[in-house]
Amino acid sequence: MSEQDRFLLAGVMGYPVMHSRSPRLHNAWFAQYGLAGVYVPLAIKPEGLRAALAALPALGFAGCNVTIPHKETAMAAMDSIDPVARRIGALNCVVVRPDGSLHGTNNDAYGYLASLRERDPDWRAQAGPAVVLGAGGGARAVVAALGDAGVPEIRLLNRTRARAERLAAEVGGPVTVLDWSERGAAVADAALVVNTTSQGMSGQPALDMPLDRLPTAALVSDIVYIPKETPFLAAARTRGNRTVNGLGMLLNQARPAFQAWFGILPEITPELRRSIEDSIP
User: Is residue 1 part of a domain?
Assistant: First the structure.
């Protein structure tokens, strides 16, 4: 074990959060790199978020991830926010700086693009329109990532249209907002379809998304990773589409977070990926 002057601490704040595989992932890296520390799940209700974040420096935390439902609201508790997170309007990582201040970042956009390229090295952003379902913090990161990568058109649909309109105005890019009722028609010539909602996650209702007009050449993506295959992905796979779940996004967004907290950019080994996959129903 390497020499350290303190026990290293990090975690993930969400509600619910006990399903998260982030602790298994980060704790494997602690062991791999010989670091004395622990990464813990922190079940924080929305009304307790600001107090929980403010306590991180006093408790000796290097930082934490934030997940549903805190990705947008956590921004108000930061002392500084990096440009990517500010543009996205959501964050997924908090870094406690040496002076005790809180710095917010967002690694979800990076993690999402990395997950697509892992699944399909030949994926090209310019191949055609993308359809994004949802308008929360995850959607904001996905829309920013796809726009920056060069996707020519992003069709954004959310059950509450006003929230999608706000996302489009704030994040920018080649975004067209459509009504939720148009989702079946929106995929007719799409090259990529992405579910960023929680629908299909274990314990949640399945996503109601007709795919009969979707080209079979399109890639179908879900940022949910529990279960490994949502009903949405299963339906896409059955009709012949390539699919990618949210595990790659989880793994890849974690690397820059671990580096920001502990100064090491960790590797995603095949053994580590298998260990995380095997823990998911």
Answer: no
List the domain range (segments joined by +) for residue 70.
8-106+253-278
CATH number of the domain that residue 101 is part of: 3.40.50.10860
Answer yes or no: do 120 and 208 share one domain: yes
Domain count, the chain: 2
Q: What is the pLDDT along the chain (281 residues), one digit of tens a residue?
A: 444 678 999 999 999 999 999 999 999 999 999 999 999 999 999 999 999 999 999 999 999 999 989 999 999 999 999 999 999 999 999 999 999 999 999 999 999 999 999 999 999 999 999 999 999 989 999 999 999 999 999 999 999 999 999 999 999 999 999 999 999 999 999 999 999 999 999 999 999 999 999 999 999 999 999 999 999 999 999 999 999 999 999 999 999 999 999 999 999 999 999 999 999 98
228 given a catalytic annotation: no
- The string of DSSP letters for the chain reads ----SS-EEEEEEESS-TT-SHHHHHHHHHHHTT--EEEEEEE--GGGHHHHHHHHHHHT--EEEE-TT-TTGGGGG-SEE-HHHHHHT--SEEEE-TTS-EEEE--HHHHHHHHHHHH-TT--GGGS-EEEE--SHHHHHHHHHHHHHT-S-EEEE-SSHHHHHHHHHHH-SSEEEE-GGGHHHHTTT-SEEEE-SSTTSTTSPPP----TTS-TTSEEEES--SSSS-HHHHHHHHTT-EEE-THHHHHHHHHHHHHHHHS------HHHHHHHHHT--
CATH number, position 190: 3.40.50.720
Query: Does 188 fall in a domain?
Result: yes
Q: Find the catalytic residue in 21, 71, 87, 140.
A: 71
